[in-house]
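Page 47, continued from p. 46.
Same chain as before, 291 aa.
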Amino acid sequence: MATAAAPVWNRWELLGSPAFATLAPLIEQLPEDHFPTLAQLNRMCDEREVLSGNGVPVEFVPQEAKTEEPYETRVYARGKVLTRDRNWHDLFNALAWITFPRSKAAINRHHYREMLARQSDGLRGTPRDVLTLFDEGGTIVATSEPELGALLREFRWKELFWQRRSEVVESMRFYVFGHSIYEKALQPYKGITAKSVIFEVPRRELERPLPQQLATLDARLAKHFSDPTALAATEDYAPLPVLGIPGWTAENEDERYYDDTQHFRPGRRQAEDAAPPGRGAGEGPRKSRKK
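Result:
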């Protein structure tokens, strides 16, 4: 599939990839023969009454409309989301707005409030780093088995995705939120890592139609970001090597795929257990926890 530099629109290719499953209800409504236009995206946006963090109707506007006004302020105050023509990154951002309107509005609102709060010192601050990290590279993980969520948080990739593979397929769902993850998935490579928020859900929730699942998760994620503790540290969001998810690449049908520690990096505790005797607390494998 083509990169953002030379976009070639293939709706059926997107619909056939598990990486874009979260957006499938929208992609199915997009044209078959050409890259989606701003007019088409805005029509979908209007139908769903998508609002900014300030309650203003969202509109995707061309990049040529850019001014000196900060991006998040413009979205918050006037609902104008700058969107480049025939650009994958901005297309996926627009589709994320339409799919997760409450969460995107909550992120926009927090960005704006943080910008106001830090006007005196001019610093960006950790909360905005957290918001940007998730907005660009976030994934929602829903699981009806809490133990599986714990394995994800503890970096126990092979145990999760291979040894308990059938349970993952049955009891976990992965919903891509971040538009950068979608863009990278156009030409997937080892190392694509999302930051995840993990929600425990009843089994019946996983069996509902996808649009209903997305609406529930959107409301829950928006509520999650309303808690100040959710913005305390980027490390609170568990790394997720997305090509480890069963079905996301044919390569992970082989057990040995999960033995690549450059791709599936061990967590802090695992690295410490594997460290040679006498290694200092701040040396070597402990650094591998960072993504």
